[in-house]
Amino acid sequence: MCLGERENRGGARAIGFCLHRSSVNLVLFRSDEERRTLLRDDRRFQHLVSVLRIVPGDRVAVGIVGGAVTSARVTTVEPERIVLDWDGDDSPAQPLLPLTVVVGHPRPIVLRRLVKDLATLGVSRILVFRGELSEKSYLESSIWSDGSLDEALLLGAEQAGTTVFPSVSRLWSLERAIAAVSGDSVVVFSPDGPARPRDVLAELRGSSEVAVVLGPERGFSEKEENLIARTRCTRVRMGERTIRTETACLLAVGAVATATGWW
After folding, report:
1. Does domain 1-92 correspond to CATH entry 3.30.2350.10?
2. End-to-end CA separation in angstroms for the chain
3. pLDDT, tens only, 94-117
4. Which residue ranges make up each domain of the chain?
5. Which of 50, 134, 170, 180 minimizes the number of CB atoms within 10 Å of its CB?
6. In whole angstroms, what is the distance from residue 55 CA to residue 77 CA?
7. Per-residue pLDDT reduced to its tens digit, 131-168
């Protein structure tokens, strides 16, 4: 990512970001997979051929889940297969942030997108709880058993160019989720929090572990609000606008990672 600055006609300074994008910045393999050959029905084959348009002699970043990042030379590109020669020097994967995201269970399709994005941002844990105002069936959704979340984690790690990604757990109540982060500095983000982020998040600098807590799409129940009030935590207001759960989570991670100096 690069940051540029320019002057508008009126003399105002404008800052713009540009992202150097590749949908797969790392070809990631599970430890039990064949790592030299990608076949035509593999999504990684499709991306390398259709998007990156690789040819023999090109190099791609590769890695094994949980291992080092290295590079491979493309030796063969055929209609049915790509062959890779892993011959680069190993480099360590980017470490995860000491940050846990606790979030009320959103719709399954939203959860899949959120898990992917949080894996890209590099949080350590994602705890998904059933809020009292949540749709009760979400926690029994097939997304927890059909491999969708595993795939989302892989895609998020590939986007970030790393081999490590967060753990994802489901919990049956906010109380259990809060107990799971009892040793962390806990920040609850909500529309009606009493403090603005800039007023309190600076106090997190130097924290070894932080957890951010966000409610489900329908918010916290009265019982959950009372639980939060009894818990050692900092409450932060997210602003007046109504925003999506996934947007709120990403904003919270960015605010905390910046305030702590991790970014």
Report:
1. no
2. 13
3. 999 999 999 999 999 999 999 999
4. 1-92, 99-260
5. 50
6. 6
7. 999 898 999 999 999 999 999 999 999 999 999 999 99
